Amino acid sequence: MATRDPKPRRTVKQRLQLVLVVASVLVMVLTGTAWGLYRDITAGITTTNVIAGGDDDGADNILLVGVDSRTDAQGNPLPPALQRLLSSGPDSGVLNSDTIILLHVPKGGGAAVAFSIPRDSYVNIPGYQRDKINAAYPATKALAAQQLVAQGVEDPKQVDAQSSEKGRSTLIQTVEDLTGLHVDHYAEINLLGFYNLTEAIGGVDVCLKEPVNDPLSGARFQAGPQTISGAAALAFVRQRHGLPEGDMSRIRRQQVFLAAVADKILSSGTLANPSKLSSLISAAQQALVIDSGWDLLSFAQQASDIAAGNIEFLTIPTTGTESNSRGDVVLVNPAEVKTFVDQRIEEQQRAAEEEQKAPPLPPARVDVIASRYVVDVQNGSSLTGMAAAVARRMRELGFVSGTVDNTGPTPTSVVRYTGSDREAAQAVADQLGGIPVQSEGGVTPGHLAVLLGADFNPATLPAAADDAQARQVAAPSGAAAPITAAGVPCVD
What are the pLDDT digits (tens) for 6-50? Predict the structure, then answer.
């Protein structure tokens, strides 16, 4: 019997980047990282020819897909020990698309919106049959592989590459038919990349409402905030059994997790740390597949608003669930989904137009070369999320993000510096209401250490940061906690 699903959860604008290398490229462009590094990253990434034609509306629709492949991006089998580590159960030999997100970036950049599509959505798959949407890729890939072998193709890697292109193309067409949006670009990450990504950035902060012990996914966690990485992080985003809303709860976890990953990459100085950045690049090269026509550098330059956190996560509307010959499925109405997607994009466009009409803020005046300095921020005030808000403001001014953390109660705000960095410290202090500066030998040269105390006035930050903070505080009782950089919301 069908049961009615809750309304799609809608969050406030998120501080979220594209996953993996897109996030890295975007931040590197904005912080002036050398073209040679970009070339090194993209030279090692696997590409696939899956985008058919295009449209001329100027917007970018990017399909982000997470798969549970037991191979790397080049089709090489993972070592058995690593497969056992990554998999919570026996390998069935069937590839699954566990995460499907369509990201819409409007013409000329600006606020973006990401539409999560439940993997069990019951849809028509072109050239195949009516099935769960996560069958579109593996089912048509398997059929194509059989045809290639029957035609005499003997090279396993050639069979895998060509059949994978067929599977990806079918998934893209299925998503287009469901949402009404033309897919301009494609990005896929596998289990190995997910594992290595979380290891490279030193883990991701999450929070659970209740303890978890699910043998099917391998998810075993205590309640409350915690830092997870590797196999534990993989289990966190894959679990759906034992959750109140099944796949919908898993989507919520994925959204929270991706926001946390992006926050960690940007706010912890990952991209300013050569060792961590090298690990991040290696993870991308081993496990990321993008469409062959995607100019990541050009996209990064156009999508600068995403770096400022101007993105929203939504889940497409559903009409219930049922059990049939394809198992437990989530019912979706393509007409309702198209209307939902169109309305949200129109709302986004209107909001952008209204924002352009608003009086511009006075230009920030920083009389130093901001990109030469890393700003570390600690929050010792009683105001939640101030460290993230200040770090975001410093990025807007061109400074490089360093560590962002909380500390014990502190009465007085200060910007600490060392050596000849006083002028830069004063420039930061002036942006924060003229708080004091102090020379401190323990500060690393080139770093500016901001300590926010009880005397810090959040009104010194631009209105956008204050508004985001106010929206979080004003969230109605019982509503889902917004996924923002201001904190880690607890989820099921």
Answer: 344 333 333 333 344 344 443 443 333 444 555 556 667 788 888
Helix (H, G, I), strand (E, B) or coil at 44: coil
Our measurement of the distance from residue 189's CA atom to the centroid of its chain's CA atoms, rounded to an integer in Å, reads: 12
- Angle in degrees, CA 116, 164, 195, rounded to 5: 60
Quote the Cα angle for 102-104-108, to 5°.
155
Residues in the chain: 492
Contact 421, 450 (CB under 8 A): no
Torsion of CA 451, 454, 455, 461, to 10 degrees: 60
- DSSP classification of residue 14: B
Choose among 99, 52, 124: nearest CA to 238: 99
Beta strand ranges found along 372-418 (DSSP E): 374-379, 400-406, 414-417
Nearest 5 degrees, angle CA 284-CA 285-CA 290? 75
Give the C-alpha distances (Å, rounded to integers) separating 142 from 14, 49, 75, 93, 187. 37, 18, 15, 10, 20
pTM exceeding the 0.70 threshold for the entire prediction: no
Helix (H) or strand (E) holding 197: helix 191-200
pLDDT tens column, 110-150: 677 889 899 899 999 999 999 999 999 999 999 999 999 99
Residue 63: which of 195, 176, 177, 180 has the closest Cα?
Answer: 176
Q: Which residue has the tokens 């989904």?
A: 337
Starting at the earlier edge strand, list the strands of the sheet with 112-116: 46-48, 288-291, 185-189, 60-67, 97-105, 112-116, 311-315
